[in-house]
Write a structure and sequence with these properties.
- Belongs to the cation diffusion facilitator (CDF) transporter (TC 2.A.4) family.
- This is Protein p34.
- It is a multi-pass membrane protein.
- By secondary structure, the chain is α+β, with helices and mostly antiparallel strands.
- The chain has helices spanning 2-17, 20-46, 61-89, 97-125, 128-157, 162-189, 196-209, 242-259, and strands at residues 215-224, 227-236, 264-271, 280-281.
- It has a four-stranded mixed sheet with strand order 3-2-1-4, covered by helices on one side.
- The longest helix has 30 residues, at 128-157.
Length: 283
């Protein structure tokens, strides 16, 4: 609903002024509405529990949503550049510029508040789709502020070419935003490891909680949307009972889930003769 209100206000501002720069702002808001709907669908799909066909869950649905958003941002940027090209060929002064800028400014204020809400909630919920949507909105807010000042300068100076020039700058800005959104999502689709700082916490937790074991090696991690996966081999003394080894695994798993909320842990227990004398040393 917020996106639709913002889109309506920006479209009204463009209609009032005929500004190509304000049209570029409205086109970007069209993308916002479409991607917000895609993000909502993806979040609901990602929340579904694992099933027979998706035993590892549906977490990557959010990453596909973020990539779709990046693609749509790039398409919007190309459309903006097309309009700017025609504006360079036939520049003209704007109609009712100040009233249009006020309407566009109101839309930007609403967008800024909603952007803050999306990024804050996305980070708290560890949701790539929400964070991606919020970051794109942040780019939209920055673009809107730049467009407002650019159009204002065009009005005061009488330089009509500044209007399509601002549209080109908006297009370049959102192209960069689209690339960043897609790059971050691709890291999840390609099973990139968790961040180094978090990985260090994981190693320290295993080392601290694996008392009774010999070592842990072949530690691997990956992230997919809100879920993170941790797996490793745990070396225990050959004479240790299955129950005792299982208790160590339960203790490590519980501790890791406190460090990395919602993580899925897989531990392969091996006898002492499989030790590699490398990896995580048990304290």
């Amino acid at each position: 609903m917020v996106g639709i209100i913002v889109l309506a206000l920006k479209t009204l501002a463009w209609w009032m002024t005929g500004s190509i720069a304000l049209l570029s702002d409205a086109l970007e808001s069209t993308v916002n509405v479409a991607t917000a709907i895609a993000a909502l669908i993806a979040i609901r799909l990602a929340a579904r529990p694992a099933d027979a066909n998706h035993p590892y869950g549906h977490h990557k649905a959010e990453l596909f949503s973020a990539i779709l958003e990046g693609v749509m941002i790039i398409i919007a940027a190309l459309l903006i550049m097309r309009e700017a090209y025609h504006g360079f060929l036939a520049p003209r002064m704007l109609d009712a510029p100040l009233a249009g800028l006020l309407v566009n400014g109101a839309a930007s204020v609403i967008n800024a508040f909603w952007c803050w809400m999306l990024i804050t909630q996305g980070r708290r919920r560890r949701s790539p789709a929400l964070v991606a949507d919020g970051r794109h909105l942040l780019t939209d807010v920055i673009s809107s502020v730049g467009v407002t000042f650019g159009v204002l300068i065009a009005i005061l100076s009488g330089w009509a070419l500044l209007d399509p020039l601002m549209a080109v700058l908006v297009a370049i800005n959102i192209l960069w935003s689209g690339w960043n959104v897609m790059r971050e999502s691709l890291s999840g689709l390609l099973d990139e490891a968790i961040p180094d700082a978090t990985l260090a916490e994981v190693r320290e937790t295993i080392s601290r909680e694996a008392e009774g074991a010999v070592e842990a090696h072949d530690l691997r991690t990956r992230h997919a949307g809100q879920a993170s996966f941790v797996e490793f081999h745990l070396i225990v003394p050959g004479e240790m009972t299955v129950n005792a080894a299982h208790d160590i695994c339960d203790r490590i798993e519980a501790a890791l889930k406190e460090v990395l909320e919602g993580c899925i842990v897989t531990i392969h227990v091996e006898p002492e003769r499989k030790a590699k004398l490398s990896g995580v040393v048990v304290l």
